[in-house]
Amino acid sequence: MSELNVIKKERTSVINPLVTCQPLGAMYAVMGIYRGMPLVHGSQGCSTFVRYGFSRHYREPADIAVTSLHEDAAVFGGRKNLISGLGNLAQRFKPDVMGVVTTCSSEIIGDDVGGFIKTAKQEIIKKMGEEAANKIKIVQINTPSFVEHQYKGYDNAIKAIVNTLAEPKDEENGKLNIVPGIVNPGDIREVKHMLSLMGVEGILLTDTSDPFDSPLRPSVAEKTPYYQKGGTTLAEIQDCANSLGTISLANYASSAPASLEKKYNMPSKVSEAPIGIKNTDSFIRTVKKFTGNDVTEEILDERGIVIDAMADVASRYLFGRTVAIYGDPSITVGMARFITELGMIPKVVCTGAKNDYFIDDLKKVAKESDEDIDALSGQDLRALDVYLKENPVDLLIGHSDGRLMAKDLGIPLYRVGYPVYDRVGYQRRPIIGYNGALNLVDGITNTIIDKYYEPQDWKLQQ
């Protein structure tokens, strides 16, 4: 009987990390709000590194403000910086939502962020007037950088956003809340596409599709102040308390659904990322269960196209090939299950986050696949590199940070997740849903063909 073998970390140091600190996830979440502005309460580097990473991956500018704490703040605190920062943003950008994201420095020195925000609100009222000031909502998001990772920061941010902004009413709105996780614009658009085919209106908590992949239309763009098109509106977030239910598509983003369920008696489900056939089927069934809407012929046709594509190529080029997967704890599990659906073997799955869902879900995949799977949980790329030198595989699936390892080992790399900065267009290409599965079938197969078959080989046509 197949089983999951969890390989324990043998050292305390981290070499080539697979995760970064919490604030990145919180900044990502706030940027998915229409006229939303993250304000990082920390040093300049806390925002600069994230802006740089977002711009490399999404090829879009990332507007992230920072309170610029310096050495004196370590002694006297960052009260002045935060209050003046909130006031400047309110006056110059007039955002609908400001998300105050804490960092290791502001958390360690013990800044009373909640108290500072209350003082800042009074200052903003004096400068802008009560009516204008009250239109601006401020959300406190605690993300201490010295613990956990960006996935926890994202989870904290979504929970803080809904707890601060959600407003219950007497009647349900007939909508469905979706917590997508840290995914690409193409993935969020695919989620919205599937919901639309079922006649379901969703509230994305939050929607980063247009903010990170916006159309270049200077003639219609909002210029003073400038905001990217799209994102979840403040009114939609306020209305999320009245939805039919909440579905999280990431195993690390469970806090907001649980909070909405507890406060408003709203059903929720934390599901596996809808990657591949089985996981997408499960997502569609959950949508049907929560809304009562039928599965349409268009969705079944999209599913059938993927099945046809799998039948075309899986047995010829993919069956029995071994794969190593690394990255996001939710995406890696979804990819592992889809790899088994293609007849391939997920030899090892590695994530930098320590996540119980990751282990539990992989155990299910191992049982279903009838193949042993090695799991590296809370580990890094160095651990995966050492493993692969002793246990080589046919294919690597993960983001661009593993490109040099792949080159050194001579293993082809199919790029998935965040960040991808040595190729273009991946942020627009979904891996979620049936259309995403079709992209994966084609991309994985072409990567295998490019490495293991000669272009002139007549057997490719057999």
Automatic annotation (TrEMBL):
Keyword Oxidoreductase among UniProt keywords: yes
Protein name stated in the entry: Nitrogenase
Alphabetical UniProt keywords: Nitrogen fixation, Oxidoreductase
Enzyme class: oxidoreductase
Enzyme Commission identifier(s): 1.18.6.1
Domain of life: Archaea
Domain Nitrogenase/oxidoreductase component positions: 21-448
Stored PROSITE patterns: NITROGENASE_1_1, NITROGENASE_1_2
Single Gene Ontology MF annotation: nitrogenase activity
Record-linked Pfam families: Oxidored_nitro
Family: Belongs to the NifD/NifK/NifE/NifN family.
